Amino acid sequence: MAAALMLMDQPNMPNPDDKRALFGGELAVKTETDRPGETLLVTFGGLSQGIAMPPFDFYRIVRKLPAKLAFFRDVSQTWYHGDLPGVGHGIGDVAKAVIKLKEESGAKRLVCVGNSMGGYAALTVGSLAKADEVLAFAPQTCLSRWLVWRIKEKRAKEQFRNLWKSGASLPNSLDLKKFLSPPGWGKAQLFADRSHPADHAHVSRLADKANTEIHWFDDGAHNLIKKLHRQGEFKRLLAEACNADWEDKK
After folding, report:
1. What is the 3-state secondary structure (H, E, C) of 60-83?
2. Residue 126: left if φ>0, alpha if ψ -120 to 50, beta else—which one?
3. What are the boundaries of each domain within the chain?
4. The pTM of the whole model exceeds 0.85
5. Span 2-10+31-241: which CATH code?
6. Angle, vertex CA 218, rays to CA 201 and CA 133, nearest 5
7. Exposed/middle/buried for residue 14 (C-beta within 10 Å: 0-12, 13-18, 19+)
8. What is the block-wise mean pLDDT of the chain (250 residues), using blocks of 10 residues?
9. Which residue of 69, 94, 188, 222 sits 20 to 30 Å from the alpha carbon of 131, by its own alpha carbon?
């Protein structure tokens, strides 16, 4: 509870014309909840603490969307299992903060979005917070030593070592196949490139989950979200998930 109250005191997002980094300092969250719309759109940064596109490119996409906004990033780069300044410690505290944000903002709908590490967070928090919809792009779905070895995941070695060294704040969530039994969300859409071995292995593990749809692509690799952004599909997906009448299509 205290962590969520701390979160509500954080400053709003910068002016969209400001060319500074989207997130300054060490805070793990920025919010814009004093906005029109009945949806709270929550995004989770990945390995680079962003959403796999330049921060202000992404902010320009969402700033005209009629929805309340919250942007989370993992400053410890341990899949949201470490310290999260301004939020608390671990992914469970993130979920509590998201629930509190939804309540205090008056939002009637919750949408969680993330790419890669952020996709893992969107799935986990989206289930814990009972999101209406989750959009996860090339997410990791297993983080334990054994499962990472088993699926031949060779990326983010330093980040995995940091996670295993520090310990997971919610150990059961290291295997989303078991953790999401059943998932708590209303609907989830997962997007991945089937030709990327690790992404295919991660996403395939959730193929039988209730209220879950997987969209496979044959190119785009781990940066699939960038391709969808260039095609205008990412913006369309956000608008549909938020039930938003988005007049500005450019």
Report:
1. HHHCCCCCEEEEECCCCCCCCCCE
2. alpha
3. 2-10+31-241
4. yes
5. 3.40.50.1820
6. 65
7. middle
8. 37 44 72 93 85 68 88 93 95 98 97 95 98 97 97 94 95 98 98 95 98 92 88 92 68
9. 222
